[in-house]
Amino acid sequence: MDLLRGTAIVMVLVWHAPAIPVLYGLEMPEWVRTLNNFFLPFRMPMLMFLSGSLLSHSIKRPLPEYLLGKFALIGWPYLVWAALHIVQGPSNYLLTSPWSWVATGYLWFLFFIGTYYCVAPFIRRLPAWLVSVASFAASVPFDGELVKGFFYFLGFFYAGHFYTQRQALFGHLGRGWPLAACAGVAIAVGVWSSINGVESKYEAITAPGSLAGIMVAMAAAKALPDSRLVRAVEAIGRKSIVYYVSHFPIVIVTTVALLSAGVESSATVAAVGLVTAFIACALLARFSSRRPLVWLYQMPGFLVLRRHLRASDSRLHRHTDTSTP
């Protein structure tokens, strides 16, 4: 889990480092665009799949504790960093506009999974595979990225949920000729994406290829021997929320600073932005559990509220047990 999540976060940073300077008038080298577009069908789908795979465990908690946890660890950082992004964004982004807070910029991922987790308790009796297939199908008629993307990624979220429920069904995909077939399909979809670029985003027809790539990535993660590099990527995965929400404004600040200093090379701006983001995020991750820094990533008082809810739930169960004939 940590290795795959860390790998996806690295791919996100490698994409945004050259993409953000484009917003300020620089050109992205075509080979960089092509390489990043190859991984387009796998970056965010894998993060969604992994997030969905955690649902089976967390949804077992009592509903108040479950919803509190999702708001404290997903909703709260979304609101904090969305406010910063709105302030950094163009003039048509207003803190007072409700639409500015809907899937704000690069933080759409947190908005989506937060919504998915909130909906999950109310559709928990539906088969996960059915929700996944229906979500991919529902994405087809839409054109806008918000609605189309919402249903498209919901398909991957519930595919991850289904995987944890039926891991034995997927076991044979991780070895032998099925794994080779998955690799072939994934490479074909990656090449198709590198040719078509963002026009291929959120297309349900590519979902099987994305899922095949995720199966290959999972098999590779299991097969990789322990090394310093693997441990470093796992560390990123364990603090994925810190890297995800923090990297974008860091790259923006770095880009603006370099342009103000007269640096006009897109390669230099992207490289410095990427290195700066990794170093700054690593420092933030290192101290992210300390006050007041922790409040950027976790709702203040969350642990106290959670202990209170658990104690209340425990007292309720004890009362129920002693009062039942």
Helical amount:
over 70%
Instruction: State the major sheet.
Output: none
Number of helices: 15
The tally of beta strands, per DSSP, is 0
How much beta, percentage-wise?
under 5%
Catalogue the unreliable spans: 319-325
Helices and strands: which structural class?
mainly alpha
The helix/strand order is HHHHHHHHHHHHHHH
The rounded distance between the terminal residues' Cα atoms is 45 Å
Molecular shape: globular
Calculate Rg over CA atoms. 21 Å
Averaged pLDDT: 89
Please describe what this structure looks like.
The chain is mainly alpha-helical and 325 residues long. 72% of the residues lie in helices and 0% in strands. Helix 2 packs antiparallel against helix 10, helix 10 packs across helix 11 and helix 13 packs across helix 14. The longest helix has 26 residues. The C terminus is likely disordered.
How are the secondary structure elements laid out?
Blueprint: H1 2-23, H2 30-38, H3 43-53, H4 55-58, H5 63-88, H6 108-119, H7 128-139, H8 145-165, H9 167-170, H10 176-196, H11 207-223, H12 228-238, H13 240-260, H14 266-286, H15 302-323
Helix pairs in contact: 1-3, 1-12, 1-13, 1-14, 2-10, 3-8, 5-6, 5-15, 7-8, 10-11, 13-14
What's a concise summary of this model?
By secondary structure, the chain is mostly helical. The chain contains 15 helices and no strands.
Characteristic key phrases:
globular; 72% helix; 15 helices; disordered C terminus; mainly alpha; 325 residues
